[in-house]
Amino acid sequence: MQPCTAKRLSIWSNFSILYATCLLGCDSPSDNQPISAESGFVDSLLAEMTLEEKIGQLNLVGRDGNLDSATKIGPEKADAIRTGHIGSLIGVVGAGLNRELQRIAVEESRLGIPLLFARDVIHGFKTLTPIPLAEAASWDLEAIEKSARIAAIEASASGINWTYAPMVDISRDPRWGRVMEGAGEDPYYGSLVAAARVRGFQGDDLSQHNTILACAKHFAAYGSPLAGREYSVTEVSMRELEEIHLPPFKAALDAGVGTYMTSFTEVNAVPATISKFLLTNILRRRWGFDGFVVTDWSTITQLIDHGVVPDSASGAAASLQAGVDMDMGSEAFTNYLAGLAKKGLVSEQDIEKATRRILQAKYRLGLFEDPYRYTNSKRQRTEVLTAENRMAARDLARKSMVLLKNENKLLPLSKSIKRVALIGPMSDAPKAMMGRWKGEGKPGDVVTLLQGLKNKLPQATIYSTTGADFEGTDRSGFQEAIALARRSEVIILAVGESQRHSGEASSRAFIDIPGVQMELIKELHKLEKPIVVVLFNGRPLTINWLDENMPSILEAWLPGTEGGNAIADVLFGDYNPSGKLPMTFPISEGQIPIFYNYKNTGRPDKGDGSRWVSRYYDIPNEPLYPFGFGLSYTEFEYSDLVLQSATVDKDESVYFSLNVTNSGSIRGEEVIQVYTRDLLASVTRPVKELKAFNKVMLEPGESKVIDFEIPVKELQLLNEEHQWVIEPGEFQLMIGSSSADIRLTDKFLVAK
Ligand code: BGC
Q: Where are the beta strands (DSSP E) in 372-418?
């Protein structure tokens, strides 16, 4: 690795002497181990830095309104980069722009330390894939990894070298708007998705020009806000934290994630940004994380409202001491750390530790070798929103769609259809199709459903109108919608939530279809025409009436740039739906929190009409659509479950195989889901836990034998002493097409 500016040359030559000396057998500065090139480089850079320059590296700021035409940041911030008071920026995007900002940092600051450019690249950069919850519904880890890879390629071509993704928060509360950003309710599946996304963003080698630093967020338990209300407190037990919320964060670490973000919430009454328990005990000591931790937006300042510090200076001290390395948005580190250090209220070693971690990340990104490697205008022109990327987005969008109902096989529709009525606020709504966290996506690049239908059926007449808006009480469009519907052979309803209804600060108390859309649907229902509901949403919704009255319902989520084409592919049979729900759809908000891996209780409802059991007086316990549910245009049969051995040792795996057959007449994919239940344990265990799955493609009439392995260590539990242990005993094995549609069962024994 060769540094490229004169300033860094001097650092590099100091370092080279030190490194060579060590290789010649002298003691390294701290011990007798040879130092790595990275730590040698970072040490020698740190040795040249003033305290203020170190603190500058811990400071991340956003762009501001006072725009300078060349840099799009105000002159004060440009000066702060020059004087080494800013180490990273968020929200400035563009190869040319970021090159200029990087030039200021590298050419005009004393030590020439390059900047990190952060951005929320969550489900695509300019080519938008479906929202993350939808991606998770594909159960296709390769496609999910590829989506993150494409996002990284596009973002890195446009000046970005750090994404605030993946969000790995598990959530069992669909009222919370940010469920759209995660992988759903299951810690096992959520962990696999987290790892896939990290691999996609970071690739094998972070220093490549098209890989970017990932950030696992929001550490931790943010997915469980009390009453589903955004930013409210989290009241999870230490057990729930360990069993449900931490696993995907650990999986992200095992996949090599470079950074973590704290969360807005609190754990055990301590705001996450000053939680030593989370940031030091778990993340660094227990897990050995050596990357850096950034706060969520202005969470240091928010400590004052939490009532745990009197002012931002105390907040800066507490968060640094807890294990935060970078302050996003509070400017508390830059304003107070130097003064605090001078008074002895924070240690310079703690500041240096944080600086070191950030410099390491910059080193790993290859920024000291070539600070301009992520600002390549040619790549920005040629590698963004390419036909290939659009095709991948279309592929993932259709894989993410879940067929919720299909009475009498109304779907797929015939392509020879002549007159279609497309009605609903999402009919031709490019902005809403993109979903929240749209990155650099532009409505003009989006294929709406109307466009998708026109592309699919060039000969047909598509009558289209919104009929109603996503919100409000305006019914003036009903008549036109009804008139158009009357003229058509089939009605396609494009209804649900807009992009505003989910995402950050979009908790909803009622998770139904908003506005007067349901009234419009009921009017159209009276026409007694075939109706296909295409549902758009960022969270599970309560759609009991639709389920009872509509023949076909396709869950399309918020499907991104190629959404319209992808939906048309599914509606007209060019793609057989294969998605499965990563989150339970309740029948009522009263069932929330709701999830498939609940406990049996001492008084389970055995369905025998008993009064004194754990159930509601007014509604069933069961959801409308369970976790893992999703139909296909074909049918699958499961048979011949064969366990290799009915008894396994603790250090072994359970091996088994089964046969799956496509017994219908259309090619299709099935997600075979494997659940286990620990039948007798020292602590209560869920009635089902997902432990493996496989998505298989089968031609009509084709059968395949599918092999599975569950390492026994995956069956460990947290005992009363809070230790992870494998308890010997009997386990039930359940294999099914959803968590509620178990087709094959057996038992095995974990030996003593
Ligand atoms: C969100 C984070 C996001 C950050 C920066 C915050 O409001 O909680 O997820 O990364 O803003 O945009």
A: 402-406
> Quick one: pLDDT at residue 24?
38
Residue 14: which pLDDT band, with cuts at 50, 70 and 90?
A: very low
Q: Phi and psi for 208 in degrees, rounded to 5? A: -65, 155
Rg (alpha carbons) of the chain, rounded to whole number? 27
Average pLDDT of the residues of the chain: 94
Place of tokens 């499961």: 638
Closest CA to 301 of 269, 352, 339, 336: 336
Tell me the C-alpha distance between 12 and 227, whole Å: 54
Span 531-543, average pLDDT: 98
Q: Is the CB of 504 under 6 A from ligand 1?
A: yes
- Kindly tell me if the per-residue pLDDT of 6 is higher than 50: no
Specify the long-range contacts of residues 302-310, CB closer than 8 Å, at least 24 apart: 302/264, 302/271, 302/273, 303/271, 303/273, 303/274, 306/266, 306/271, 308/270, 308/271, 308/274, 309/274
Residues whose CB is less than 8 angstroms from the CB of residue 701 and which lie 6 or more positions away in sequence, other chains included: 661, 662, 663
Distance 103 CA to ligand 1 centre (A): 27
Average pLDDT over residues 211-216: 98
Residue with tokens 């974990």: 750
A 10 A CB-CB count for 410 gives: 15
Q: How far apart are the first and last CA of the chain?
A: 53
217 in ligand 1 pocket by Cβ < 6 Å?
Answer: yes
Expressed in percent and rounded to 5, the helix, strand and coil fractions of the chain are 35, 20, 45
**732 beta partners:** 677, 747
pLDDT higher than 70, residue 479 = yes
Burial of 350 (0-12, 13-18, 19+ CB in 10 A): middle
519, with CB counted inside 10 A (0-12, 13-18, 19+), is middle
Burial of 694 (0-12, 13-18, 19+ CB in 10 A): middle
> Is 164 close to ligand 1, i.e. is its CB under 6 Å away?
yes
SS3 674: strand
Q: How far is the CA of 295 from the centre of ligand 1 (A)?
A: 9
Could you tell me how many helices (H) and strands (E) the chain has, helices first?
23, 26
pLDDT digits (tens, 9 = 90+) for 734-748: 999 999 999 999 999
What is the residue type of 689? E
Residue 571 per-residue DSSP state? H
* Alpha-carbon span 686 to 601, nearest angstrom: 9
Which of the four pLDDT bands, split at 50, 70 and 90, describes residue 311? Answer: very high
The token duo for 386 is 């390419």
Element (H, E) at 42: helix 37-48
Catalytic residues: 296
Secondary structure element (H or E) that encloses residue 689, with its range: strand 689-698
Percent of the chain with pLDDT over 70: 94
User: Considering Cα of 225, then 186, then 667, then 149, what sign does the dihedral take?
Assistant: positive
Q: How far is CA 113 from CA 4, 76, 672, in A?
A: 11, 18, 50
- Mean pLDDT over residues 186-201, rounded? 98
CA of 503 to the centre of ligand 1 (A): 11
Q: Is the pLDDT of residue 123 over 90?
A: yes
Alpha-carbon 479 to chain mean position: 41
Examine the pLDDT at 20 and tell me if it is beyond 60. no
**For 452-539, where are the E strands, in sequence order?**
461-465, 490-496, 531-536
Tens of pLDDT along 657-666?
Answer: 999 999 999 9
Say how far apart CA 4 and CA 372 lie, in whole Å. 10
Q: What confidence score (pLDDT) does residue 31 get? A: 46
Q: Which ligand 1 atom is at minimum distance from the Cα of 217? A: 9
Residue nearest to atom 6 of ligand 1 (CA): 297
In contact, 433 and 426? CB cutoff 8 Å: yes
Residue 405's DSSP bridge partners are 553
> Please, what is the Cα angle at 635 between 630 and 636, to 5 degrees?
90
* Longest CA span, the chain: 88
Give the bridge partners for 748, in sequence order: 731
